[in-house]
Amino acid sequence: QVQLVESGGGLVQSGGSLRLSCVASGIRFSFKTMGWYRQAPGKERELVASITITGATTYVDSVKGRFTISRDNAKNTVYLQMNSLTPEDTAVYYCNTKFELVSWGKGTLVTVSS
Known about the structure:
Helices cover about 0% and strands about 50% of the residues. By secondary structure, the protein is mostly beta strands.
């Protein structure tokens, strides 16, 4: 059974940092390109960062230079380090595979106050 469990969200002031974690089970994690997605209120879910099995990363322009995605295949975990947060980063953050999406987890809420 596929399970994605995100954690690490919270309330932070503008300019602050958070580190999100996502533990995956039921998938061949080390063989998957993984991604972090976010859904802000009233907006569609978007992919903000991804990491391949070899560690190559991509980012949406709005987070480049501020967010860093990483993975630990031994722990079936993908991380998102978020720095210099702004209110525009407020959203529920989810992880999933980048291709052939699996069942979504509950996500973790990030709220950035101005």
